Amino acid sequence: MIENRSLGSKAFDVFNLIILISLTLLSLLPLWYTLMVALSEKEAVQAGIVSVYPIGFNLYSFDAILSDSGFFKAFWVSIQRVVLGAAFTMLVLSLAAYPLSRTSRQFPGRNLLMWAFIFCLLFNGGLIPWFITMRNYNLMDSIWGLVLSGGIPIFNMILITNFIKNLPEELEEAAKIDGAGPWRVLYQVLLPLLKPVLATVLLFTMVGHWNEFFQGMVLSTQMDSYPLQTYIQQLVVSASLENLANLSLEELDRATKLNNGSLNAAKIFVAIIPVMLIYPFLQRYFVKGITLGSVKG
Amino acid sequence: MSTNLKNENVGLKRRRIKNPDVKHYWIMLVPALIWLALFQITPMFGIVMAFQDYNAGTGFLHSEFVGFEHFQYMFELNDARVALRNTLIIAFGKIICNLFIPLIFALLLNELRQKYLVKTIQTSVYLPFFLSWVILSGIMLQIFSYNGPVNNLLEFMGFDPVLFFQKADLFRGFLIGSDVWKNFGFNAIIYLAALAGIDHTLYEAAVVDGAGRWRKVWHITLPGIRSTIALLAILSLGGILDAGFDQVYNLYNPLVYSTGDIIDTFVYRAGLQGLDFSFGTAVGLLKSVVSFILITAGYWLARKLLGYRIF
What we know:
The complex is a heterodimer.
Chain A: H1 7-39, H2 42-47, H3 60-66, H4 69-100, H5 110-122, H6 127-136, H7 143-149, H8 154-165, H9 169-177, H10 182-193, H11 195-211, H12 214-218, H13 228-246, H14 249-258, H15 261-295
Helix pairs in contact in A: 1-15, 3-15, 4-7, 4-8, 4-11, 4-13, 8-15, 9-10, 11-15, 13-15
Chain B: H1 22-45, E1 52-53, E2 64-65, H2 69-76, H3 78-111, H4 118-126, H5 133-143, H6 149-156, H7 168-196, H8 200-208, H9 213-224, H10 226-236, H11 245-251, H12 257-260, H13 263-273, H14 277-306
């Protein structure tokens, strides 16, 4: 394309590049800083002199995590939760989305069911009734409480349903003419085609379970049941927030000195690693999954 | 061919051949429906607590009914009014900023000449979206602490250090700003998809007509994604009572309750920590009902005005 580019246009390009690179750095630097704090010596962190490179490089903080059984216990709870939760969600969702993608002529009652799900998506009893229900089910301090409670993200179910509806009807008809029943249609025709949206939902489910701290907090009566995020919330975040409110500036300064900022940063960084390892690889799927599933219905 | 399910005769009295697959459809739905009954419908019965003086010993079958007493008390309670006001202000600020800042970002990214950078930029700005508020709060507590890098920078530039987490008048801006930082990249996905859907021949025609860059954005790009912007705006209004529990809970402390306490954190403190189950249920119920009405109205509007359908 021949284009006459004015000086203003070129100036804008430079300006735009600078802005976008700044935004990129703004997204990455806080995590980089956390890693640098984790790799710096305790004294440098307390003095507040760590910036974009480690001061007194060492691996003591990561070493300390390795011998922290509480951290490992919480990490293991989170791993179990992610694996069991993702398996449960994917199984139930991939089964339910297919019948719900039928028209009400093919599946009488489908619209009613859909509205029931949507009602539950938009309205719930709130925190306290949920908590009492979970307690009545005896799901306190149980991995199953964490797995089941958020078990079926209804919004994601609708996403998959819409995705199936956008597939050409002929595929299914052809399979049926060849004698395939609904189960075969689901597993051999639809599931392979649903890869982008299923990858999207899988990613969100795994990240959702990994990141969730609140249920881990209110459904646990002892530290052994904490998932990793709850463990970090209680030991790192909550403690700091309490200090902020209750201590004078001098006391706060002393508390910061006693508090091992480098170790905290290392814990935070380790908790981020699994997420950083997953999402970039699923990026092309979730971008596609989100835009296709939500645009049309 | 014989399926003797009750629901068969719900909607089709007319000449319909029974679909033999229907039986299997119901089997496929069984796990989801059981889950729905146990974890979504059953808790809704607990709503009666809002109208009772719930006694954990007797359960809600035998607790005394008190009518709307808890709701009345809520409106008289100053803390509840403060929480409502904060919720509205914070949520409104987030809605507006999360609508327009991702739009500006998407437009800038769309104009970038160095196309090879697009993927790297996107992957980077998505990162905070995938991290929890626990993690982000842990990071922010270090970055914005009294001797953290931000205050070091401020001091270097000749300003006094700021106690970011203890200043009530800064807290709402702090919440909105960090929320935008976390989400702007991800929220831009929808805009970028809409931008990619604009017909390219329009731009070529505009160039022939002598349109500059700015005129192309103004006359082609923005009109091309107008309906996407309108749709997101309408749908986001349902979130006006959602100020973001996870974020606030992980950043607030008693010094900033006056500007940072929101309905959800208030319910948690009063209901679950304070063990006033009935009162907490009542406040939560009011929020659920109002949100439900707003979201439904939003969907209805989106359907009427823009032809959007949720399914």
